TrEMBL record:
Pfam families: Beta-barrel_RND (PF25944), BSH_RND (PF25917), HH_MFP_RND (PF25876), YknX_C (PF25989). It comes from Orrella marina. Belongs to the membrane fusion protein (MFP) (TC 8.A.1) family. InterPro entries: MdtA-like_b-barrel (IPR058626), MdtA-like_BSH (IPR058625), MdtA-like_HH (IPR058624), RND_pump_MFP (IPR006143), YknX-like_C (IPR058637). NCBIfam families: RND_mfp. Residues 305-373 form the YknX-like C-terminal permuted SH3-like domain. This is Efflux transporter periplasmic adaptor subunit. Residues 63-206 form the Multidrug resistance protein MdtA-like barrel-sandwich hybrid domain. The keyword Signal applies. One of its GO terms (cellular component) is plasma membrane. Its main location: other.
Amino acid sequence: MSSASHKVIRLVAVGSVAVLLAACEPSQQQGQQPPPPLVSTVTVVPERAVITSDLPGRVSAVRDAEVRARVTGIVKRVLFRQGGDVKAGDLLFEIDPAPYEAAYQAAAADLERARADARAASLLATRYEPLVKINAVSRQEYDDAVARSQQTEANVLAVKAALENARINLDYTRVTAPIDGRIGQALVTEGALVEGSTATRMALVQQLDPVYIDVHQSTSDLSRLRQAFRDGQLVQVADDAAQVKVVLDDGTIYPESARLLFTGATVDPGTGQVVLRTEVDNPDDVLLPGMFVRVRVEQGVNDRALAVPPQAIQRAPNGLSNLYVVRDGAAVMVPVKTGNNYDGKILITEGLEPNDEVVVEGFQKIRPGAPVTTKPWQSPA
C-alpha cells in the first residue's frame, strides 16, 4: 500500500474519533443535574410558653353624661374649650337669663304680698278670739277669721314654692358640667334656641380614666375562663376579677393595669354571646371610646410548646396550614394546626415533632419531595 493511502486512512480515523467525541459531549452535559436549592431552616425544640387567648373588644367610657338644656332660651355664651377636660360644676353654657330673672323677682314680690296677707289675717283671728268669748262677735265671724288666717299661711307656702321654682329655672340658665371628664364638641352655638321641653342636647362629657373594654365570648368560653380563674391559672386581683393585658391595634402591649371583671356578665340577645367587661387604667387618655383593641388573657403554661416563625406557615386555598419540613434531605409538606401567637412566633398544636427542621425562607425554589440544601435561618434584627 502506498504512503498516500496510509495518510488518507489516518485522516479518516482521526475524523471519526472527532465525530464520536462531539456526539458524546451533549449527552454528558445533559447528565449533569443542577445543585439542590438552598433554603433557610430552623430546628424546632420544645420551649416553655405562656398560653394566651386574645379577646377582641371595643373601648367605652366609664361614664357618659349628656349635657342638655333644662330651660328654653337663647344661648348667650359657650364657655369651654372643645376636647378639653372639665370638672363637675364648671360653667359650660349660659342661656339668656333675663326672662327668668324677671320671673324670680315677680315670685319674690308675690311672697311678700302673701306674707302681708297672712300677718293681717293672723292678727284679725287673734283679735276675735277674746271677743267671741263675750259674744262681742259671732262665732261665725271668728271661724271665718281663723280659716282666713290658715288660708293665707297656706298661700305663703305655695308662693315660696313658686319662688323656689323660679330660682331653679334661673340657675338652669347656667349650664354646668355634671361630672369630671373630657368634653367633646359643642352641639349648639351662641344665638341658638334651646328647648327645655325637649331637653336639647348641648354637649357630651365622658370620664376616660378608667375606661371599659367590652368583649364578646360564647357561653362555653366564659365557662372555660371561669374555670381557669378558679384553678388559679389567671392572676386574681379582686374577688371576681382577673389581671389581663390590653393589646393595641399596632400589636404593642398597653402598659397600664387591666382587670377582667366576671361580675355583671350579660348575654347579648341578638348574638347569644356573653358580654364581659374589662376595666383599664387610662391616665394619659391613650384609649378612646370606640377604639377596637384586644384583651389578652393568660390561660396556662405549656412546658413543651413547639413554635415557628410566622413566615414559615403556608396557607392553602382551603384555609388549612402547612409547613415544609426537611426529612432525609428533601422538603416534605406537612399539614399542621396552629395555635396562638407567642413571643413573635406561632404555636403549632398538631403535625410537628420536636427537632423537626422547618423551612422558613426559600419557598419559591422548592417543591414537595424535592431535595434541598439547608442553612440556619437568621432572624431579622
